[in-house]
Design brief:
169 residues, alpha/beta, Rossmann fold, six-stranded mixed sheet, 10 strands
Length: 169
């Protein structure tokens, strides 16, 4: 079974992790949840999600996509070098890299948005532009294998775009 990675840290936005998690499963993909440490992480609203793997256990060449939910999790993840390295490697190896809401903070830290079209939550816009991205205020922005969205209300468009990219191989 082909699989995708879902990055997690405490204070993730519930819907932005769980909606894509179940959409990918529904589409036939395995989902491997990755945290800085294996174990259970709490969402903004207390819903737990368990990370089975750590970045050091992941060979990105064996995966098709890497997903980054928003909330407060990206701000916590971006100071963990192994998590940032995983995003950079996923981008370098041609995986579909998808981030929603505050998720693009990880794309900025991994330096994978320079020259790319992208979107994000409004408070991250200046950081995204300063990192060299071409900001667009749209529900979903696709640039090659990079997929970004703004808020939980964009999740249907976000997941549809991810699955379209994955279907193209």
């Amino acid at each position: 079974m082909e699989s995708v990675l879902l990055l997690i840290e405490n204070n993730f936005e519930d819907t932005e992790a769980l909606y894509p998690y179940y959409r990918m499963k529904e589409a036939g993909f395995g989902v491997v949840v990755v945290g800085a440490k294996a174990g259970t992480y709490a969402s903004k609203h207390g819903y737990p999600l368990k990370a089975e793997k750590t970045p050091g256990e992941i060979d990105v060449k064996k995966f098709k996509a890497l997903l980054i939910p928003g909330g407060g999790a990206p701000d916590r993840m971006r100071v963990i070098p192994e998590m940032v390295r995983l995003v950079r490697e996923a981008s370098e190896h041609g995986l579909v890299v998808a981030a929603i809401c505050h998720g693009p903070q990880m794309l900025i830290e991994a330096d994978v948005v320079r020259g790319k079209k992208a979107t994000c939550y409004a408070s991250v816009k200046t950081d995204l532009v300063n990192a060299g991205a071409k900001y667009e205020d749209s529900p979903v922005v696709v640039d090659g294998r990079l997929v970004t969205s703004r808020v939980p209300g964009d999740l249907p468009d976000f997941c549809r775009a991810i699955l379209e990219r994955l279907s193209r191989g």
